[in-house]
């Protein structure tokens, strides 16, 4: 109907997309073939059938296995170009793309291959696209520091750093020094917090890491003082509705708290997280959410505006989109 068309056609910003999570099973198999990598699945269908997750870790195990087919600069280029084409089709006008260098450097892929491949695809796309380097929080802070140092020759090709992977047991404060160093370098700062982890992790992401956005953050509503603070400080949350359902953060979309976040005055945004694994890209996320929750045209406009408002773009460039 009409609302659906509005959701599809409105210009959008995507602020929470892991590029390795955009790797579709067909491309995984094509790259495995091209690179002579052996997969533990017999077919595209068998791989897709394994996408039944019970929590974040059950997803991450398959996500890191899928990324093992990425070896050459052209592989990173092809993955990113495919995502940007899908984003363009969904009327995404600006995207801030996460990438996980440690997933690749630990397999012997050089940093320049990773960054140059992803960056070149961004330059070749009509969609405005910037990069955010994410540290894997299940690894040590020393490893994160070494990763940041290895990326510094390409400092002009990424705008910020983030923190992802297994949240529970790996609190933000484990990465205090590498975030302080990133801050000195003038990088933007974000972190996954309050996806599976408790509100305490959102507090330390804000107060210890000094992040400028919280990725997910949906568990903030368990703490009224935190909810009020996020609203007062207009601290954006990059919410990923289909992800939250697939990883069992909420049982069903009808239980998702996106509307409560908006009603609390929080700058919530809608994003796809790992679209190849969670059942859809930006428009799929908007449509699934609006079908399940009592959201209307004004919410659509507010969510689209929030995306651009929370983007790491110069004010003049934001005005073009708002
Ligand atoms: N890496 C890719 N997707 C992620 C998510 N939703 N949470 C944590 N780490 C991730
Ligand atoms: Zn994520």
UniProtKB/TrEMBL annotation:
Residues 11-322 form the Adenosine deaminase domain. The keyword Magnesium does not apply. One of its GO terms (biological process) is nucleotide metabolic process. Keywords: Hydrolase, Metal-binding, Nucleotide metabolism, Zinc. Transmembrane segments: none annotated. Zn(2+) binds at residues 16, 18, 192, 273. GO terms for cellular component: cytosol. GO terms for molecular function: adenine deaminase activity; zinc ion binding. HAMAP family: Adenine_deaminase. Belongs to the metallo-dependent hydrolases superfamily. Adenosine and AMP deaminases family. Adenine deaminase type 2 subfamily. This is Adenine deaminase. It comes from Duganella guangzhouensis.
